[in-house]
Specification:
Length: 96
């Protein structure tokens, strides 16, 4: 699968909503290039395309829609100043 790139010049608030019939197993991570303010939302179980995005200035919200969804936070770019929220709270969240 080809990836998706969201590349505006500036982002205040970013909301990524995961949908579909299969449970999403998600990794939220840095793109491995230091200090470039780019994050990745990656499917561990191939339910959606990897999405890269410019780190927001205020809030990054990730909405999971199914009870079987799970998200692992694997670290962020050092430049990320925004808060990060995962909803609903019934999703499993892990930080590494």
């Amino acid at each position: 699968m080809a990836g998706v790139t969201l590349n505006p010049t500036s982002v205040t608030t970013l909301t990524l909503t995961l949908q579909g019939n299969a449970a999403n197993v998600v990794s939220l991570e840095d793109d491995a290039t230091p200090n470039n303010s780019i994050g990745l939302l990656r499917s561990v179980n191939a339910t959606f395309q990897t999405t890269s995005y410019k780190d927001p200035q205020l809030l990054a919200q990730h909405q999971l829609r199914r009870g079987g969804d799970a998200i692992t936070v694997n670290g962020f770019d050092a430049n990320l100043a925004a808060g990060v929220a995962v909803s609903p709270t019934t999703a499993r969240a892990t930080t590494r």
